[in-house]
Amino acid sequence: MLENSMHAISVKFFKTEDVLRWHMNVHNSKYKCADCGKCFTDTTALTVHKRSHSGEKPFECTVCGKQFTQSGNLVKHSRIHSGEKPCKCLECGKAFSQSAILRTHMRVHTGEKPYKCSLCDASFSKSSRLQSHNHHVHSNRRPYDCRFCGKMFKSSGDLKKHVYTHTDAKPYSCRHCSDCFAQLGQLKRHLLKSHNEGTWLTCHICEKKFSCKGSLKKHVLLIKM
Questions:
Q1: pTM of this prediction?
Q2: Strands 115-116 vs 123-124: parallel, antiparallel or unpaired
């Protein structure tokens, strides 16, 4: 019984005694939220947490008025207005406003794809791409319906393209000739085939060619099913 009990205990190790003492604050409830009982390692973390209950956002952007619970989030937000990009990639020199965005970008160079689909072998560098994959490949949910015929679609973009078949609208016109198109992808394909403008995108799996990134992405997602 003792041996089984020991296996059930999760032991965490720390590099120094100071780090261990700091961590122990979580267990001794020294910094405990009175509203939900959640414990924190220091008073600063507890103060920030309490704002999730009170709704307090004391840090306000002087440009647009948006408010934040933490000063660090305000600093990151302010870079939208200033254009500051202090986080630079050492591989290609591209700069970013936040270190988190830089970390995601680095996967372009490392090839890391930590977001794995639980239903197939596909994996992705961004969580948003995994969500898109699950939506387009594994989900049958179609929340967007056509007001003209009732046909259902998975995305608002697909619905928008479909509606053009009812209205005969062709908002995309060729700058070289008088041809007009209902979809941007159709225009790009026309420019490539008729005017040799642009670059064909090739699928690395089957070498099929596409005129736009969106069509290629959907194609690859379907192949990986």
A1: 0.49
A2: antiparallel
